[in-house]
Amino acid sequence: MSELLMQEAGLIEGLDTGNEESLNGRRIMRFKGIKKPANVASVVAGAQLVNPTSRTELTKRLGTVSKNIQDGLMNGSRQSVDTHFMIIKPIAGQKSVRVFDYSDDKTVGFCQIHQGQLQKEEVMVLTSLTILMGTHTEAITTPEAAAAAKWEEIGTFLKNGTMEFKADNKSIIPEMSCEVFGGSVSVIDAVNGIGFSHGNGNKPVGLYRLDNPKMLPTQTALDLQLNWGITAPNFTALKVILHGSRIYKK
User: Fold this and answer.
1) DSSP structural state of residue 232
2) Along the chain (250 residues), what's the average pLDDT of each consecutive run of 10 residues?
3) Where does the chain have alpha helices with state H?
4) Rounded CA gap, 245 and 20, in Å?
5) What is the structure's pLDDT at 114?
6) Is the pTM of this model over 0.85?
7) Which backbone phi and psi does 67 adopt, to 5 degrees?
8) How is the chain split into domains, by residue range?
9) CB-based contacts of 67, cutoff 8 Å, min separation 6
10) DSSP E strand stretches across the chain
């Protein structure tokens, strides 16, 4: 039984996770007081009702990942972890931006996704995105400049723009308004851009939660494009954070 499924199974009241059996070469579990074995799908269905987290969303999709990844979870060579991938992209003088690119290098304080894709045999379920706008007195092109910049809710010119997210030219999030990343700010730390907004679900600043979480496949080019139609001011940049759960090799 994988660590991931064991943890999810533990969320279901009355499930005896210590009672495993074999059916057609597949490990199964029984609920206490239920004679018929519960398969993995039953376990996941129950878990999502109790604790609908990004880990639960990932567990629901385990049947779509490769056998190597599934086997890695079973033998403990892979694990699932909470994931928050951040990348910063300068936008000064631009009317659009592609957030991920093959030329991206993993750089502490600036970019956490190498070559614009998840690495070999890593998969991630995307449950939400955060987009913030940074301003500074110089170009935000280095970790040092990013650390000194002021990060806050995106400007009106960005709210009026659009966003589309693809993976390997397949739509993850069809074109939509960037207004979802805005909101009337009620509390915000002006230096670090941390706070909460109202008007869009009383959510953290810049956060958009997906009602339908999406699976990001391994070693597949990610293509997140934003368009806003007018020239962005000098010394501005975007900070994009992908939130969810990821499977990776220990």
Assistant:
1) P
2) 45 39 46 38 40 72 82 87 94 97 94 93 91 97 97 94 92 92 60 52 81 89 95 97 89
3) 3-9, 40-50, 54-60, 67-75, 143-148, 156-159
4) 26
5) 94
6) no
7) -65, -35
8) 3-75, 80-249
9) none
10) 15-23, 26-31, 78-90, 96-98, 123-135, 150-152, 162-167, 170-177, 184-189, 194-198, 207-216, 222-227, 236-249
DSSP state of 154: P
DSSP annotation of 190? T
Token output for 223? 């293509």
* 169: enclosing H helix or E strand: none
Q: Which two structure tokens, joined as six digits, stand for 203?
A: 């959510």
Alpha-carbon distance 76 to 40, whole Å? Answer: 18
Contact 168, 176 (CB under 8 A): no
Domain 80-249 architecture: Sandwich (2.60)
